[in-house]
Amino acid sequence: MSHAASHNDAYGVFASQFSLGPQGGKTPALTVAIKDCLDIEGMVTRCGSRALADAAPAKSHADVVANLLASGCRIVGKTRMHELAYGMTGINTFEGTPVNPRYPDRIPGGSSSGSAAAVAASLVDFAIGTDTGGSIRQPAICCGVIGFKPTFGRVSRKGALPAQSSLDCVGPFARSLPMIERAMSAIDSGFWPETFDGQLRIGRLRLDDRIETPMAEAMLSVDSDKDGVIEDIELPLLNAAFKAGMTIIARETLLANAALMERPELLGDDVRKRLEGARSVTDADVAEAEDIRARFTADVDGLFERFDVLLTPALPLPPPRLFEAGEPAKVLTLTHYLRPFNLSGHPALVLPAATSDGLPSGIQLLGPKGADARLIAMARRLIETNPNFHIEE
Predict the structure, then answer these.
(1) Arithmetic mean of pLDDT over the chain
(2) Helix (DSSP H) and strand (DSSP E) numbers for the chain
(3) Mode of pairing for the β-strands spanning 169-174 and 126-131
(4) How far apart are CA 12 and CA 118, in angstroms?
(5) Who contacts 59 (Cβ-Cβ below 8 Å, separation ≥6)?
(6) Hey, which residues does 229 pair with through a beta bridge?
(7) Cα(244)–Cα(380) distance, rounded to whole angstroms?
(8) Which residues share a beta bridge with 190?
(9) Catalytic residue ranges
(10) Residue 17's pLDDT is what?
(11) Across-strand partners of 298?
């Protein structure tokens, strides 16, 4: 393996010896890395698991891969991930844990760890991940890049594992908003960048004691422009929606991986224990979670009758250091502000920032369903008027 390949591997891109798409040319193709829960024809989709290492190679490209190639992008590797996309740390004892390029003593986040790290290390122009409970947005903040979860169902999941999910979305990581737009245009033929010139009405989540004070700085520093307004909002079902998301992902992940539980010794300890715990989820638990989904979604939809965009913190506490990743108190609440919006299905964008003492932090912006391009345009407006976000142009 060449030195360059070893460098790529450290930051989560494996199988980087292959390249799909155009080579050379007067205008270099955009380079992309793909999370290894998405099929690439002729390659095994391992999902970061020893249990799938000997699976049959994919017979065809996932739709998102086919769309990238059709748009002229060049795929340069697949990325490491938290096993079976069922974890938030990105730590993987089978494949190795990607180094967090900007905060190397801290977790890269999960489950799309390698995709976030590859973008943060400038190995690719953008990367593709998946987000079932914050799995794009959380590693994006951990690694200091932008992450975007589209409206649920907007980007095709054909060729993704798990095959069935009521929460999961395919989306991009990038270092700039224009690159997020180019990535979305490549994976979704119906996406067209927009501008936003009107009055920006921002609904800012009122905080409680779940968030550490430095992690709130980025959100509280956001100002509207001279014509805009910011009002504090309540989401009374936010905590219940977080728990409901945990319930539904447990049930759906167990159903998707039931066959793998026949050989539990091939699974990492953390994932095996989570799948075993998922067996305790009852039909009544799922029914209650679905009721919360409907009510929480209605609450969020109702806020967009008054506001253009909703603003929340990205994380309630800093990403833990690698040696702290086994401590539940350091990990379980990381997606407190992220997971509820997988349940509701709204598009969500995270912008990285740093706390006053230099730790990774950021904000989350949410838009109405289907208003993905407008949400990115509104994020650009906020960046123009708020110097705290050091985002590439």
Answers:
(1) 94
(2) 12, 11
(3) antiparallel
(4) 6
(5) 41
(6) 201
(7) 32
(8) none
(9) 35, 111, 135
(10) 62
(11) none
Residue 33, strand partner residues: 77, 127
- 372 in the Ramachandran plot: left (φ > 0), alpha (ψ -120 to 50) or beta? alpha
Q: pLDDT per residue over 169-226, tens digit each?
A: 999 999 999 999 999 999 999 999 999 988 899 999 999 888 999 999 999 999 887 7
Whether the pLDDT of residue 375 is over 80: the answer is yes
**For residue 84, pLDDT beyond 60:** yes
Q: Which amino acid does the sequence have at 207? A: L
Amino acid present at 8: N
Please list, in sequence order, all residues whose beta carbon lies within 8 angstroms of the beta carbon of residue 392, skipping any fewer than 6 positions away: 175, 176, 179
Task: Provide CATH code, domain 3-187.
Answer: 3.90.1300.10
Given the structure tokens 């020893």, which residue do they identify?
Answer: 50
Segment 338-349 shows an average pLDDT of 98
13: buried, middle or exposed (CB in 10 Å: 19+, 13-18, 0-12)?
Answer: buried
User: How many Cβ atoms are within 10 Å of 232's Cβ, its own excluded?
Assistant: 11
Judged by DSSP in three states, 259 sits in helix
Contact 254, 275 (CB under 8 A): yes
Strand partners, 126: 32, 174
Instruction: Tell me the C-alpha distance between 306 and 314, whole Å.
Output: 22
CB neighbour burial string for 328-359, b if at least 16 within 10 angstroms, e if fewer = eebbebbbbbbbbbbbbbbbbbbbbbbbeeeb
pLDDT for res 11: 86
Q: How many CB atoms lie within 10 A of CB 253?
A: 22
Contacts 24+ apart (CB under 8 A), 333-336: 333/210, 334/88, 334/109, 334/134, 334/138, 335/88, 335/133, 335/134, 335/138, 335/242, 336/210, 336/238, 336/242
